[in-house]
Design goal:
Helices cover about 75% and strands about 0% of the residues. It has about 325 residues and is mainly α.
């Protein structure tokens, strides 16, 4: 690990420093492939989100996995760009579905342009991602990432059907999380091992790390929607207003008395929300300790991620990935 990487204070910053050359190549490839000779709207919309200051966490997972596994070829850069394109495409589509107005502290693309542009540019990025996958020449890589793309869409549809349904269980919630978030984390890790020619056991450990990290990451994001010192770029209570059943709410409903059940039925089930309802929802969750128990759940998944990454040979990047699992949950402290 370089002195610069050691000096970085946060695990994702350490990863970015350690992988700086690879990330430069990824960013150059992203800029080249999001260009369009005939439709200038495509790079305009894409650049607004791709260059909005995101951490590049998912592509860094691919780069780190490949480097940790000894890969010295060029295609980890293609795969990292693929992962970022898939992620960006889903964000463009999500903001349309959720009617979001803010992403990463900036106006969303659908607000600045329109829903049609966001959907069509998202489709373009999905197509570009498949072109990049094919260039690696690996059918297994194509299989992993194509499955992830399908799983992401499946998770989003499941969330749509589960929204506002007070019968939604934690098992259903975890299926949603595994689909819409963890699937790309696990695929990002697994393809790094695949391109490096690793054995099945190593690739499974990489997959398991990404899966557990992605679940912890999404649980924490859902907690940040109801408060937290670092809820940057998010509007407090968006999930509540959109009637999404996330873990702290699901647990509060499970413990609700008759009055609380009636409140959840009115606000989430029927969508009749009034001034002060968000504060009341947070008070109910505080009464039942569901924010704390959900944070404990996130810590548990972070622990599983650390167990999985520990199965891999010692490497400076392995330690950064280990620390990243802790940092994902530390965002809510």
């Amino acid at each position: 690990m370089s002195l610069d990487a050691a000096a970085a204070t946060k695990p994702h910053e350490q990863l970015a420093t350690a992988l700086a050359d690879d990330l430069t190549a990824v960013n150059a490839l992203i800029r080249a492939r999001m260009a369009s000779e005939h439709a200038p709207r495509i790079p305009e919309v894409t650049a607004h989100l791709v260059e909005a200051g995101g951490k590049r966490l998912r592509p860094m997972l691919t780069l780190a996995a490949a480097r940790m596994c000894g890969y010295e070829g060029p295609y980890h850069v293609h795969l990292a760009a693929t992962v970022e394109f898939i992620h960006t495409a889903t964000l463009l589509h999500d903001d349309v579905v959720d009617e979001s107005r803010q992403r990463r502290g900036r106006p969303t693309a659908n607000l600045l342009w329109d829903n049609t542009s966001s959907v069509l540019v998202g489709d373009y990025l999905f197509a570009r991602s498949f072109q990049l996958m094919v260039e690696t020449g690996s059918l297994r890589v194509l299989d992993i990432l194509a499955n992830a793309a399908a799983t992401i869409a499946e998770g989003e549809v499941l969330q749509l059907t589960a929204a506002s349904d007070l019968a939604t269980t934690e098992d259903i919630y975890l299926k949603v999380v595994r689909g819409k978030t963890a699937a790309l984390f696990s695929a990002a890790m697994e393809v790094g091992g695949e391109i490096a020619g690793q054995d099945a056991e190593t690739k499974q450990a990489l997959f398991d790390y990404g899966d557990a990290l992605g679940i912890a990451f999404q649980i924490v994001d859902d907690l940040l929607d109801y408060g937290g010192t670092k809820a940057i770029g998010k509007n407090l209570g968006d999930d509540f207003r959109e009637r999404k059943l996330t873990m702290p709410v699901i647990r509060a409903i499970a413990k609700a008395d008759a009055d609380e059940r009636a409140f959840w039925d009115r606000t989430i089930g029927k969508g009749r929300q009034e001034d002060g309802d968000l504060a009341h929802a947070m008070a109910i969750m505080a009464r039942h300790g569901t924010m704390e128990s959900t944070r404990d759940e996130a810590l548990s998944w972070a622990g599983k991620a650390k167990v999985s990454i520990a199965k891999l040979p010692a490497h400076p990047l392995r330690q950064m990935l280990h620390d990243l699992a802790d940092y994902v949950v530390a965002r809510i402290t």
